[in-house]
TrEMBL record:
Keywords: Membrane, Transmembrane, Transmembrane helix. The lineage of its organism: Eukaryota, Viridiplantae, Streptophyta, Embryophyta, Tracheophyta. One of its GO terms (cellular component) is membrane. Its main location: membrane. This is Sugar phosphate transporter domain-containing protein. The chain crosses the membrane at residues 145-167, 179-200, 206-225. It is found in: Membrane. Residues 2-223 form the Sugar phosphate transporter domain. It is a multi-pass membrane protein. The keyword Zinc-finger does not apply.
Length: 272
């Protein structure tokens, strides 16, 4: 129960921090803070779970971050409140994603089961605290807002999309890792830019194209690096297992021989 409460607090801090960061900072600095999540997740996994990454994985992560940064980061304006909110958002989001994977592995539960246990606590706490946070930021309660059919439709649409987003997050982290989810998540940026150009005639500059190509190349390298790392782990695992078995066999042999020697000595003494 305490772990669920802890996770809900961290998740709510992540949601609040990301929204406040977007509200208080420029879009460029918001994108930089999102890009910083990959190295932060790597460092936190190393600190919390002693997880180490190969050189290929580190290189691919750098390529992805550079690619997404080139095609998204424009103006960068920083202020004290926005910087603080961005730091809270990055740390809490990284910790939340790491906790998702560790809870699933610790209790051997699936993504939907974990989501069904954490979502009610998150929803209840946000329903209680959300209006007061809104009042602190805007000076008005949500009840003062005039609801319309269009607003209700988009609220329901946003909630539905959020459900799918959370499900995909839990599935991806449970199946792979928090770093893989972050790398895969940046594919969303590439899709947004591409669909904006195709559907809404948004400007597509040479800088955007080069950044997207670099990001996709980084994702391909990351997939290859993770696969190579898995294969190397599977090759070393049987070897270590066999060596341990040989040691155990040798210990058993030594033990049997010592017992036989003692039996022979006792037999000789009894005859004497």
């Amino acid at each position: 129960m305490w772990e669920l409460l802890w996770f809900s607090i961290v998740a709510n801090m992540s949601i609040t921090g990301m929204n406040l960061s977007l509200m208080l900072n420029s879009v460029g600095f918001y994108q930089i803070s999102k890009l910083s999540m990959i190295p932060v997740v790597c460092v936190m996994e190393w600190m919390l779970h002693s997880k180490r990454y190969s050189r290929e994985v580190k290189t691919s992560v750098v390529v992805v971050v550079l690619g997404v940064g080139v095609c998204t980061v424009t103006d960068v304006k920083v202020n004290a409140k926005g910087f603080l909110c961005a730091c809270v958002a990055v740390l809490s989001t990284s910790l939340q994603q790491i906790t998702i994977g560790s809870l699933q592995k610790k209790y051997s539960i699936g993504s939907f089961e974990l989501l069904s246990k954490t979502a009610p606590i998150q929803a209840l706490s946000l329903l209680i605290l959300g209006p007061f946070v809104d009042y602190y930021l805007t000076g008005r309660f949500i009840t003062n807002y005039q609801m319309s059919s269009g607003a209700i439709f988009f609220i329901l649409l946003s909630c539905s999309l959020a459900v799918f987003c959370n499900v995909s997050q839990y599935l991806c982290i449970g199946r792979f890792s928090a770093v893989s989810f972050q790398v895969l998540g940046h594919m969303k940026t590439v899709c947004v830019l591409t669909l904006g150009w195709l559907l809404f005639d948004s400007a597509m500059t040479f800088k955007n194209i080069m950044g997207m190509i670099l990001a996709v190349v980084g994702m391909v390298i990351y997939s290859w690096a993770v696969e190579v790392e898995k294969q190397s782990n599977t090759k070393t695992a049987p070897h270590s297992k066999n060596s341990m078995t040989e040691e155990e066999i040798q210990l058993l042999k030594d033990g049997v021989e010592s017992v036989l020697v003692k039996d022979v000595e006792l037999l000789g003494e009894s005859k004497g």
